[in-house]
Amino acid sequence: MTDTKRNDVILLLVVAFFALFAPIILNPFPSDGPLAQFNAGYPDLMQRFVIYGIFAIGFNILFGLTGYLSFGHAAFLGVGSYSAVWMFKLLSMNIIPAIVLGVLISGLFALVIGFISLRRSGIYFSILTLAFAQMSYNLAYSVFTPITNGETGLQILLSDPRILDAPTGTAQPVTSLFGLEMRDTFLAFEYLGRDFQFTYGYYVCAIILLISFYISMRIFRSPFGTMLRAVKTNQNRLSYTGVNTRPYTLTAFVISGMYAGLAGALLACMDPLAGAERMQWTASGEVVLMTILGGAGTLLGPVLGAGFIKYFENILSRINDNVLEAWFAFMPDGMSDFFVVIVHPFVGKGWHLTLGLMFMAVVIFLPGGLMDGAKRIIDWVSGKNRASKRGAKAPAPAE
Amino acid sequence: MDAILLQILNGLDKGSAYAMIALGLTLIFGTLGVVNFAHGALFMIGAFCAVVMNRLLKLSVETIDETKTDFLGNPLKVNTPYVEAWFGEFGTTMIGYSVPLAILLAIPVMIVIGIGMERGLIKHFYKRPHADQILVTFGLAIVAQEIIKANFGANPIPQPTPDAFRGALDVGIYLGFEANAVVYPVWRFVYFIFAAVLIGGVMIFLNYTTFGMVVRAGMADRETVGLLGIDIDKRFTAMFGLAAVVTGLAGVMYTPILSPDYHLGMDFLVLCFVVVVVGGMGSLPGAVAAGFLLGILQSFSAMNEVKAILPGIDQIIIYLVAVVILLTRPRGLLGRKGVMEE
């Protein structure tokens, strides 16, 4: 047990290190060099890594632990965004009340939807959550237009009745944390040709990510987490022993809904705009992809998957034919053209194709996701070799 | 009264599409037990078979007409499609009829895609959990969608309605209503009749042929049929091909109603899953009935009178029905007892 605890502390420290020094670590290439487009160390993208990481951590608490595959989690993300923007409109531009309201409202929303959807399991549960999410999405566009502002999306205006800090000038109000403006760069320097930027917004997100990660770790190690894993392994057996599993799964559902709401509220804090497209079912599918790609049921996997997908979305979609031609310029003419033609469909606008292929490959060959792949490589390099030298078989993990 | 009739008719074309896609989906689920999220992609591929056929027929040879000049004074270049060059007037008609002709293209294409998909990918997922099947087919759907987008662009591509079926029919007159009270486009009738024939054909095939009997027996108890010395796997693969053809043809004929674009499949997929669940997982008549029922319900809820009482109901009716059905009768309207009832 102490071994697990020590490993957890190490894991948390590693995550903290990467989260806090990300603006440096993610900027390995000189900003005017040929590889500059692989840099990910600019605030906008890093914020998205972290926010979608939180979203995926929350989804993993439901899917990874209980095995209930929800296809409607984007609804909670959307609700969190809308509540946060409303808080900006009505109360103040401080992000704390916005985040609190976003989490609370999406938690309530998740309670209602979870209470109904969890009456069924398996594919029926997936369809029920999908149906609820699609209903929210469609209603956000039509009937709820007074709340959601329909297709335009909800945004803050100068004329908003902000009770605590009513607008004084004509400048567009910006989100802040007790005066620290989210978009503000508090430190920027250049070193060895690399541009480093540090914004308040990113660090707020990063610290919230660390707290979320820590909470998720505590849930994983708690008796509650063990109970959820038992639900995944064999719900029937659990029912036969006289356990009512519904309260446990419902709690997990609400917690993961609140995580999604937190992520949605943070999205709104970084850019105070909320649109219904955040609730569409493809957005729900995206968080499923992130979690599976990283490794469902592992602590680190979802964060990794979220970072991976968001990184490739940004980097691959920016590679156009000119960039490709520059890369293959060293080859003879015909050959470079050939390679450009081959690679072209997979980058730029076609990066979804790469994503789909990657995702299929992971589901087919690596059901445990990237984390499973990493573990296999580590085993192959160290553990397994040693085990075979000793002539002992590696102990099979208990199911 | 005429308003009600009109709404029923309006629901029929969408209902036909739902019914055909749901029938294919149920065939796959009932035989192979696979939850196929790539099914919408099959519908989309079918629709794009129509686009390809249209383009094939329009392949042109460029000739220079010396007698005329264009606005710059150069000899006029005339593009004549090959079919027109070969068949004259008949060729022009053929281009107009590209959508029905595309059926000829779609059948082999869908068989190849369906069987290839089953043998190449889904075969390996029979023993894996439903969640894995959903995920891998979801990935496949993304890939198919992106391939279509890369080759045909992101915009909808309108397809021609054949000349003979253009325009609308004043149905009301035949039934004693005033003129122009119930007007309905002819092609939608054609679509409905096509769907009825196709669905009827599949049903007859399953219920009145030996092959169909074996398949139905396999759906009920796969192991026993296997023990009787019948290669049930091969027949189930054939059924996957059949399901792909039904879905693909539904897509081909739908193109004049709705111009196909790359997210057509995803749009229909969610709805059709709901349809299948409402009808009952694994029940073929259930899928068909639920398809028409939901199509008609959707068109009724779009009436202004209904929307005045329940605003926004037209947006959510299908999902609402699904939620109610799943909570009160999880095996669906016509589902067999015990199938996927947990």
Q: Helices and strands of chain B: which structural class?
A: mainly alpha
CATH architecture annotation of chain B:
Orthogonal Bundle
Largest interface: A-B, 41 and 40 residues
Number of helices of chain B: 15
CATH class of chain A: Mainly Alpha
Q: Tell me the β content of chain A.
A: 5-15%
Say how many strands of chain A there are: 6
Q: In total, how many beta strands of chain B? A: 4
Overall mean pLDDT of chain B stands at 84
Within the largest sheet of chain B, what's the order of strands?
1-2
Quickly describe the structure:
The complex is a heterodimer of chains A (399) and B (342). Chain A is mostly helical and 399 residues long.
Descriptive notes:
The complex is a heterodimer of chains A (399) and B (342). Mean pLDDT of chain A is 82; it is low at 388-399. Chain A has 399 residues and is mainly α. Chain A has one domain (2-288): ABC transporter involved in vitamin B12 uptake, BtuC. In chain A, the strands form 3 sheets. In chain A, strands 1-6 form a two-stranded antiparallel ribbon. Chain A has a two-stranded antiparallel ribbon with strand order 2-3. In chain A, strands 4-5 form a two-stranded antiparallel ribbon. The relative contact order of chain A is 0.15. Chain A has 17 helices and 6 strands. Chain A has helices spanning 2-20, 22-25, 43-66, 74-90, 95-117, 122-141, 145-148, 200-221, 223-233, 235-240, 246-270, 281-294, 301-318, 321-327, 333-343, 351-365, 369-390, and strands at 154-155, 176-177, 180-181, 185-191, 194-199, 273-274. Chain B has 342 residues and is mainly alpha-helical. Chain B has one domain: ABC transporter involved in vitamin B12 uptake, BtuC. In chain B, the strands form 2 sheets. Chain B has a two-stranded antiparallel ribbon with strand order 1-2. Chain B has a two-stranded antiparallel ribbon with strand order 3-4. Chain B has helices spanning 2-32, 39-57, 82-87, 89-96, 98-120, 130-152, 171-174, 186-208, 210-220, 222-227, 232-254, 264-279, 284-301, 304-309, 313-328; strands at 60-69, 75-81, 168-170, 183-185. The longest helix of chain B has 31 residues, at 2-32. Chain A binds chain B through residues 67, 69, 116, 119-124, 126-128, 130-132, 134-135, 138-139, 141-144, 281-282, 285, 288, 292, 345, 349-350, 352-353, 355-357, 359-360, 363-364, 367, and chain B through 35, 121, 124, 128, 130-132, 134-136, 138-143, 145-147, 149-150, 266, 270, 273-274, 277, 281, 311-312, 315-316, 319-320, 322-323, 326-327, 330, 340, 342.
